[in-house]
Structure formats: C-alpha cells, structure tokens
Amino acid sequence: MKLLLLKFRAPNGVPSTCGAILTAGPDGRDWLTLVELPFNPGMSITNAAEHIANVVVDALHLAPAKLRWFEHYPARDGVPAVLDAIHFNVAAPRRLHTPTWRPATHAERAWLALHTPLTLDAAPHTETVQ
Questions:
Q1: Rounded distance between C-alpha atoms, residue 51 and residue 97, angstroms
Q2: Measured between alpha carbons, how far apart are the two ends of the chain, in Å?
Q3: Is 37 helix (H, G, I), strand (E, B) or coil?
Q4: Residue 13 counted as domain residue
Q5: Residue 92 confidence (pLDDT)
Q6: In the chain, N or C: fewer CB atoms in 10 Å?
C-alpha cells in the first residue's frame, strides 16, 4: 500500500491538495482511492477527478486499464463519510476522461475498510438487489 499526498494545480489554476491510497485490490487490479482533505485550499476531488487521474497515471506510470478508482470524503461536522467508485473512459494511449460515479458496493467498502486506513461508516448507502 502506498499513501500519497498529491499537490496539483487544478484546471481552474488554483493550487489544490488531496490524499491518495494505492493498494493491490482483490481482483488483481490496483485500487486507487482519492481522499478529500479538510485542509485542501482548492478544487474538490470530485470536480478535479479527471485531472487528478491523468496526473496520477502519468506520474506513477500506471496502466489505466489495470486500475479501479474510488473517491472518499471522510465524515465531517455530522455528515457521514462517502465512498464512491469512479469509472473513467480511456482514450489511447493513456488519457482518462468522462468520469461517472456510483456508490461503492458493500464488498468494495468492506475490502477497503480492512486493507486501507480509511474510516468508513457501517452502511451509508443502500444497494438495490435485483
């Protein structure tokens, strides 16, 4: 597992900071979780997700097809923690674009809670089973 502090200039030009946790996932891919930090002076991880993803892939020489992305907002001021999975489309050769979000599944939450330092609430999202 790697814990990273990412300092970057957001697309709007404002210096920004976020955390990132890179760990080997149970599916054979690397799982990368972006973490919103309370002292971030700039753009949120949600608004800068595409930019951050491309910076991380380039800086760490990662293969986008072998990554799963997550976004974590820690609990704060009575608001429960949020953990979402992010899907990026990939353009050749290594450009990530058009992110979409969904709540992390119970299995994803459980795995990340056991294998990373994230503090997650017991059940913040309800899954629909069909």
A1: 9
A2: 34
A3: coil
A4: yes
A5: 75
A6: C
